[in-house]
Amino acid sequence: MKYIRYAFMGLIAVALVSVALANRDLVTLNLLPEGLAEIAGVNQAISLPLFVVIFAGIVVGLLIGFFWEWMREHKHRADARRKTREAHQLEREVKRLKGEKHKGKDEVLALLD
């Protein structure tokens, strides 16, 4: 199974390197469209290789997806935390009640109950 994982990671690496080599040309990224940049007075631009833009888009998309899932599953984590706390409280109560029930009895007889 380990070799399959390494082979898969190798294939992904080869694919990423080939995409990077095929998209080395520089592209200009503008902060705002030309008309809006003139109105706002902000004309920020940067030139990057296209593969950097592609990979950055993939990374940003993954981060947004992870955050979205984390937020969506918050109610499930909170519910599990609440139920775990309740289970621990009930376990403590059962131990306390068993101790009260068998108070003053012989330990062997208490185990048989």
What does this structure look like?
This protein is mainly alpha-helical. It has one domain (1-80). The chain contains 5 helices and 2 strands; from the N terminus they run αβαβααα. It has a two-stranded antiparallel ribbon with strand order 1-2. Keywords: Cell membrane, Coiled coil, Membrane, Transmembrane, Transmembrane helix. The chain crosses the membrane at residues 46-68. Residues 73-107 form a coiled coil.
Helix content: over 70%
Percent of residues in β-strands:
5-15%
Q: The biggest beta sheet, please?
A: 2 strands, antiparallel
How many angstroms separate the termini?
50 Å
> What is the string of SSEs from the N terminus onward?
HEHEHHH
User: Mean pLDDT score, rounded?
Assistant: 89
Strand order, sheet with most strands: 1-2
Short synopsis of the structure:
By secondary structure, the protein is mainly alpha-helical. 75% of the residues lie in helices and 9% in strands. The protein has one domain (1-80).
Question: Which secondary structure elements does this structure contain, and how are they paired or packed?
Answer:
Elements: H1 2-22, E1 26-30, H2 34-40, E2 45-49, H3 50-72, H4 74-101, H5 107-112
Antiparallel strand pairs: 1-2
